[in-house]
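Quick check before the chapter quiz. The format below is the same one you will see on the exam, so make sure you can read both the input and the output lines.
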Amino acid sequence: MPSPPSAHEHPALPHSQAHVHDADTLPAGTRLVLVESPFQRPRTQVTVIWPEQRVRRVVLALPVEKGDGRKYGHSLVEIGRLPAHLRDGTVFAAPTFSASPWLVNHATRADCRQEDHLVRVVVPTVLALLGNEARPPVHLLGFSKGGFAALNLLTRHPGLFAVASIWDASLLSDRPPHPQLVDVAGSTARLDEYDVRQNLRRHAAALQGARRIALGGIGTLEADWTAGRRLLEALGIPHDAYRDAPADHRWDTAWLAPALRHLLALEAGFLPGARAREE
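Here is the expected output.
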């Protein structure tokens, strides 16, 4: 089972909890955590849905907009609308980032190290909220650039993150990187380091032993879904590839429900003790 970083390995940085401004649209038990991070500009935060039941897992909802942008909806508002059995026992955490969140470390800018912010600040901060409770598995959930980021994070940190459930992911087909990605990477070498297709090839061995990826579609990025499925098959990486009902390219229960069902199924298969902990 992947072990989340201990407080000793990556201690949580100073943070505080604040009033949730849109509490009327978010589920009960939502917390807003203000984070001081050396890897981002000031005023980053993590919004957290805390379950009423014992915590069995943490799911990171990876954003598609910088700051607290809502053009593509709000991940936690949509998650709060899902059936209870898809949410029970799960801490859902939605972090913010200062720039477009491709979850890469900029080549030169210390305040644009997005991967470091997530791995070294966000995850330890969320786990610190558990106090002395046993550390649960940490999963990745995202669409579009968040799906791109989830696959990169799983390949680069297979011991930290357990499974990734993604939908309508970007840049799995052979096309130029998005201008936003070019900007937050800062150099050609850094772009190569975060090429998701190359990372799947580089780290395939770490992902060939168990089914840890759910590749959902299709929204607007059908070519990426098809290319991603073919690449995973060619590399011998076990995965679930599925086509659900069409949904808008935004946070939406239409794709979140099957994505979370697949995530829970992956967890049960990858972490045999997970089902026993729920009983």
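If your answer matched, good. Residues 61 and 276 are 25 Å apart (CA to CA).
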